[in-house]
UniProtKB/TrEMBL annotation:
Protein name: ATPase AAA-type core domain-containing protein
The keyword Kinase is annotated on this UniProt entry: no
Protein keywords: ATP-binding, Nucleotide-binding
Residue numbers spanned by region Disordered: 336-400, 458-497, 801-845
Biased composition (Basic and acidic residues): 336-352
Cited Pfam families: AAA
PROSITE patterns: IQ (PS50096)
Keyword flag Glycoprotein: no
Sample GO molecular function, one term: ATP binding
Segments of skewed composition (Basic residues): 353-377, 464-492, 827-845
Gene3D superfamilies the record matches: 1.10.8.60, P-loop containing nucleotide triphosphate hydrolases
Length: 845
């Protein structure tokens, strides 16, 4: 794609943002929404629109090569990303559920589920590529030093004496030779049989014409059948009933060219960025050298003039404005010196107080407003209007900012001369000029302050001037002291158990201990799964649907990937410190953790009980372990702490035969989670196959968010079969009935499907595919050996989820809604409902 394509994408995204921002900043504060459904619809619509904008911005940011445009884009992208996360949390607080269904909104907006897939910004990885490579290298070196690990050893550990090994080789070699000889013998025998038959039959008696006709008949029939089949296949492809054949040569495909172009553009980004950084330094130096001295002299003259004018007007020299008030820059806003001095004196005495008073009042008013909003949400205050109100956003100001910059600078800029899309020197000059001016003003202020005191001392040696100076100095000193103390206190709280060791050293130790592990490179898009179109319909019928696999993907992106990937989003969005992935065996829990780490370029700390067994023993060991993982995790963030089978930590009884001591971290972990702050991009991710075995309270206090992972539904199974067969070298032809296969594999998880596909599609079978196409029956035998997940097991997950705090809240809210509806129909005279109804009626009027 071209520069103009990505500029257009950006432009479209900005146009959509303008509409949304009008909704976000209404001229009058909106009235609280009483209808929960309407509030959710409003949120969901905004959420989906933001996702569409996000997709466009992400694509533009990935490909735009102009360094200054990229900065504005990044600001906007982070803002939109943060707003999406915020809206998700708003929806969660409103609906009391992690999962939300938007099929009705999608059909209203005429969108497909693919249009609202949340992409993972590529800059998470691309902009840290160098660091990640170095870390990977270090990890590789350490792993090579410690040799193959336990898991690998088990695989390799087939040991046998020489004699036995030679015997096995001999057996196989003799078998091979035997088979070859048998094949020869068979061919010789067949040849002999044929010769014997010819001898017994004698010379052919058939008329050559008749024989030729017979051959022609057979050939023509065969050729026509072949042609008809080909035409039928082509027609099926034409009407979209069969997939087109895969191209044999992928090199000349347009997709391949597109990928190459994208790579080239990313390289151009680096080059342009480098040039931009150089230009920043050069232009600044130029301004300092060429314009600096004139600027400095001009300022000094102006200030001296001001001294004299003041003295002429009021008979004494003025007070020099403080650095905090903006120094001499403040003087030139007001031109009249008498007025300025008046203002200054008033500021000292009364105005400052007045302003403070006003500010305080304003703040109080704002706070009151906020409180009102919150109360409205809770519905506690009878005087306030009940209902839901959108919480103030931390990201809308950033989006506003970026939007204004776009409008002010880029929307109308003439770029006909800038075809390669390099930096714009004029913009840099404007920016740097301001920067240099403020810097020079600081220097000038210092000089002029000294000059003023000298002047004052020389002309009239009164005490006022000196007092002002002292008080100024004292103030500064005091401030300095205070900040110093605070700093020290903050540091004292965190004891560093390893003060003299470097992070690389600690990283190496954790890798050697097997706590930091190498994560398989899996993209989130590899986690296949279809969208469910029934979510809203089921919820409206008061049936809680099981989430679809595409919902799982979305949730992992929103809770884990987006906040951990961007520091700006993590700092201001609602904090998610931990997440529990709960689902039956083989549903891809580990795969999701690996996908998270791959997409983020995050370190993976394996804190599973089985992995910790025997490592860092005792209380001190545990303290050290926690210290190490947090220190290294923070220094090399983002980091993911993974705990497999995490329900074991909160089980009531642990069997004595269990050597892993899963309860070791039970106390330390929740404590340490409290130390995670908005600037620490760390997350605890637990996976469990049987969350119902754990005690609910402690489990929920440790894991903030729950992601329930379903068995795949028909649509997802269909997709999984197709994708996994192709991935393992198979081919989807007309003779493979994927639909029936998907139907009969209800209850089988992706893990089962992967196993079955790998067992069927051996190298030998893949080689035979051209002659013997794959058939659905072949998968039956491997599947029969696997135990599917029965409906009861899935139900037990649902019931368990109903008992979690979120599930309980949801049930309560549903009950309240039902009561409301019931009250409306039957008990019109009852108190509460009557009140509400009355209000609603009034509103409508
Ligand atoms: N949605 C999916 N798309 C493609 N492959 C999947 C999907 N889900 C799981 N798999 C594959 O299934 C296999 C099992 O997945 P994984 O080990 O992550 O499951 P799990 O839930 O952690 O299982 P367990 O609870 O038994 O440890 C892996 O090979 C994984 O790649």
């Amino acid at each position: 794609m071209s520069h103009s394509y990505y500029n257009k994408q950006w432009q479209e995204a900005q146009a959509a943002l303008v509409d949304l921002l009008q909704q976000e900043n209404p001229p009058e504060p909106p009235k609280p929404e009483r209808d929960r459904l309407a509030a959710f619809q409003l949120l969901a619509t905004m959420y989906i629109k933001y996702i569409q904008i996000f997709r466009k911005l992400e694509q533009s940011y990935d490909q735009v090569v102009h360094p200054q445009k990229r900065r504005v884009l990044r600001h906007c992208l982070d803002g939109v990303m943060g707003r999406i996360v915020e809206l998700k949390h708003e929806m969660m607080n409103l609906e009391f559920s992690e999962y939300h269904y938007f099929d009705d909104v999608l059909s209203d907006l005429k969108l497909t589920p693919n249009d609202v897939e949340i992409p993972v910004p590529k800059y998470f990885i691309n902009e840290r590529a160098k660091n990640l490579k170095e870390r990977e290298k270090l990890l590789g070196q350490v792993l090579a030093k410690i040799g193959p690990q336990d898991g690998d050893k088990e695989k390799e550990e087939i040991r046998m004496p020489w004699e036995q090994a030679i015997r096995i080789i001999q057996i196989h070699e003799r078998a091979r030779q035997g088979r070859l000889r048998a094949k020869f013998m068979r061919e010789i025998r067949q040849q002999e049989d044929r010769e014997k038959q010819i001898q017994t039959r004698g010379p052919p008696t058939l008329d050559p014409d008749v024989a030729a006709m017979r051959i022609q008949k057979i050939w023509k029939g065969f050729a026509q059948r072949r042609r008809t089949k080909k035409e039928r296949d082509e027609e099926m492809i034409f009407i979209g009933m069969a997939p087109p054949p895969l191209p044999t040569n992928t090199k000349n495909l347009p997709q391949t060219f597109a990928v190459k172009t994208e790579e080239l553009r990313r390289k151009a980004q680096d080059v342009h960025e480098h040039e931009f950084q150089q230009a920043l330094v050069n232009i600044r130096e130029n301004i300092v050298q060429n314009e600096g001295p004139d600027l400095k002299e001009g300022m000094m003259d102006q200030i001296r003039q001001w001294f004299i004018e003041c003295r002429d007007a009021s008979g004494k020299f003025p007070e020099y404005p403080d650095e905090d008030d903006g120094g001499s820059a403040m003087i030139f806003k007001e031109k009249d010196p008498a007025e300025l001095e008046k203002e200054l004196s008033e500021k000292d005495d009364g105005k400052a107080k007045g302003k403070k008073g006003k500010k305080d009042k304003k703040d109080k008013k704002d706070k009151k407003k906020d409180k009102k909003g919150k109360k409205g949400k809770k519905g506690d205050d009878d005087e306030e209007e009940e209902g839901w109100k959108m919480a103030p956003s931390n990201f809308v100001p950033a989006i506003n900012d970026a939007s204004d910059t776009y409008k002010g600078v880029w929307a109308t800029r003439d770029e006909t001369e800038n075809f390669p899309q390099k930096h714009d020197s004029e913009l840099i000059k404007e920016e740097k000029r301001k920067e240099v001016e403020t810097e020079i003003r600081l220097q000038v202020d210092e000089l002029m302050r000294a000059e003023l005191t000298n002047l004052k001392a020389a002309v009239d040696r009164e005490k006022k001037g000196k007092k002002g100076k002292k008080s100024g100095k004292k103030k500064k000193k005091k401030k300095g002291k205070k900040s110093g103390k605070k700093g020290k206190k903050g540091k004292k709280k965190e004891k560093d158990l390893t003060p003299d060791r470097t992070i690389e050293d600690l990283y190496e130790e954790l890798v050697t201990q097997g706590i930091i592990i190498r994560c398989p490179q899996i993209k989130l898009s590899d986690y296949e799964g279809e969208y469910s179109y029934l979510g809203t319909t089921l919820r409206q019928a008061n049936i809680e649907p099981m989430p679809s696999m595409s919902d799982v993907r979305r949730l992992v992106t929103e809770f884990g990937i987006l906040p951990l990937g961007s520091p700006a989003v993590h700092e201001s969005s609602p904090l998610t410190k931990s997440m529990l992935l709960a689902g039956p065996r083989g549903t891809g829990k580990k795969m999701l953790v690996h996908a998270m780490c791959t997409e983020l370029g995050a370190n993976l700390f394996d804190l599973s009980p089985a992995n910790l067994a025997g490592k860092y023993p005792g209380k001190d060991g545990l303290k050290m372990l926690m210290h190490l993982i947090y220190k290294v995790g923070r220094a090399l963030q983002p980091s993911v702490f993974y705990i497999g089978d995490c329900e074991k930590m909160f089980k009531k009884k642990i069997p004595k035969t269990d050597p892993t001591d899963p309860k070791r971290l039970k106390k330390e972990l929740p404590k340490s989670l409290k130390t995670i702050k908005s600037e620490d991009r760390l997350m605890l991710v637990g996976t469990t196959r049987c969350p119902f075995e754990a005690e609910m309270k402690p489990l929920m206090s440790c894991y903030q968010r729950i992601v329930l992972i379903p068995r795949p539904d028909y649509a997802s199974r269909n997709l999984l079969w197709r994708k996994l067969i192709l991935k393992n070298g198979g081919q989807i032809t007309g003779s493979l009935d994927v639909s029936s296969l998907s139907k009969v594999t209800d209850g089988y998880t992706p893990g089962h499907i992967v196993t079955a596909v790998q067992q069927v599609l051996t190298d030998r079978r893949v080689a035979q595919l051209s002659k013997k196409p794959l058939q659905a029956v072949e998968f039956v035998a491997p599947l029969a050996r696997l135990d599917p997940i029965y409906k009861d097991e899935e139900e037990s997950f649902k019931t368990w989820y109903g008992k979690t705090p979120m599930g309980k809240k949801r049930a309560k809210a549903a009950q309240a809604d039902e009561d409301d509806l019931g009250g409306g129909k039957d008990k019109k005279g009852k108190k509460g409902k009557k009140g509400k109804k009355g209000k609603k009626g009034k509103k409508k009027k």
